[in-house]
Phosphate transport system permease protein PstA
Amino acid sequence: MSTGTEHPSTGTEAPVTGTGLEAPATTTPEVLRRKGALPRWAPLGILAATGVVMAGVVAAMGSGVGLWAFFTAVVYTGATYTTSRIVEGARKASDRLVTVLVTGAFLVAMIPLISVLWTVATQGWARFDLTFFTHSMRGVVGEGGGALHAIQGTLVITGLAAAMSIPVGVLTAIYLVEYGHGTKLGRAITFFVDVMTGIPSIVAGLFAYALFALLLGPGVRFGFVGAVALTVLMIPIVVRSTEEMLKIVPNELREAAFALGVPKWRTIVKVVIPTTAGGIATGITLAIARVIGETAPLLVTVGLATGVNLNPFDGRMATLPVFSYYSYATPGVPRDPFLDRAWTAALVLMLIVMILNVVARLISRYFAPKTR
């Protein structure tokens, strides 16, 4: 029994609608193109064509690469939207337009970052040698010398700041989430933490200097004062990051522990903190990376030294940010050795920050709760 009707022009049977026996629609690439979809190579093709045309225009104008990139971006955006609007319709054209704008914003944001990385790496590679990491500047006037004293001073001062700020920040966050939620004291602490997050770093340095100047007299400068200044900057970051991590712990875990008769303090120690250990460690590592490159508070509180000093309670200490600043701002004669050391110190500091960020990501991945 036939389920179709004969087509008058071709003699073939056409399916009868409404019987549930219709042939499924095909979605081959050929059909998609007939429906008005641009091929996958279209965006790159439009970009290449636009770049070639704009290169000719900019060459005729006698302009540089920057103007060529700007013209190419503008014309490419308009050409992509117009082509997609004609072939694919308004909805797909709007999607492609937003994609181009977001991608362009990302590339623009990457330009200064890549420029800084390239400049510091190329300029700092000249003195990136063994001498730079094994010698100090004691007795060095021109060429030679290194930043051993500055590297050690940075690690000592940052370590002291971390030792003081991590317990205070973590315990404050635990109080805000587990005990002080909704209380007047909790709201006051949250307010002051928000205020501390936005204070300039030089204010923290002046506060630490004024505090120790009142206690020990004016002109006091040693490593512990700088550690206190960095602690003021680091505590609000630790509090905020730890607080956000503790908030994402499901309340069901706490209630299950309470139902078993577990005290609240043990629930926090054995359930809440282990659940968010990866996130807390990541926030702490990022806070250390944030303060390790601070220059202004250390200029006021620590000063500069030319030799190794590992005692943070006696005498001035050198740090990488201050060492780089003074080498570049007040170079001696000849200038080139001082400038080379300044760029290399900046490169070493940048590498330390990058290593800390990588460590933070590894900690987050390793301690993240397993989903399978």
Remarks:
- The chain has two domains: 33-119, 133-367.
